[in-house]
Amino acid sequence: MTTRCGFVALIGEPNAGKSTLLNTMVGAKVSIVTHKVQTTRARIRGVAIEGESQLVFVDTPGLFQPRRRLDRAMVAAAWGGAADADVVVLLIEAHRGLTEGVKTILDALSQRTDGQRVALAINKIDRVKSEVLLALTQQMNEAYPFTETFMISAEKGYGVADLRTWLAAEVPAGPWHYPEDQIADLPMRMIAAEMTREKLTLRLHQELPYQLTVETENWEERKDGSARIDQIVYVARDGHKGIILGKKGETIKAVSQAARAELEDFLGRKIHLFLQVKVRPNWLEEAERYSEMGLDFKDGNS
Question: How high does pLDDT run on average in the chain?
Answer without folding.
Answer: 80
